[in-house]
Please model this.
Amino acid sequence: MILVLLALCAGAKPGSAQDFAISTNVLDYANLGTINLQASYAVSRHWSVNAGMKYNPFSYGSGEEEARSRQLSYSAGARFWPWHSYSGWWLSGTLRYQEYNHGGFVSRETSEGDRFGGILGGGYTYMLNKHMNIDVGVGVWLGYDRFTTYACQTCGRIIADGGKYFVKPGDIMLALTYIF
Model:
């Protein structure tokens, strides 16, 4: 991690008007309305650093028929841009922590817990104009999940408890980005 930070600082450039960007992943809203925002800063022509969060407090239905995919997630990472920051192809590395509670979709079971790990991803950014971009990307999340599974959402009967390592999709992204 220290080597990555030193490499980023060594290639740092003086500030300009097109170094800061905010974005939102449109596909996350399809996950029962997950609100998300990411801010990034171009530290050099080929590198940008970013921080983001996702939040979903919503439940749908009531009682035993309730479905939810609640989460609060924080992430921080960096992107490498072979051509120029905020345009063209990119590769990324991200650290993520997520607190979650989901269930009620296929069965009455519900799970809650904490996940943390790293995401390796890549994608392409298409420039619409000077200030707007569309990002398309995908990532793989590797990490550890500490969880509790309940038989139903209201009974409180624990049927599984523990921790496990996982590999799952990290981000499937179709994002709108505004560059300042």
Observations:
- The longest strand covers residues 158-179.
- The mean pLDDT is 90.
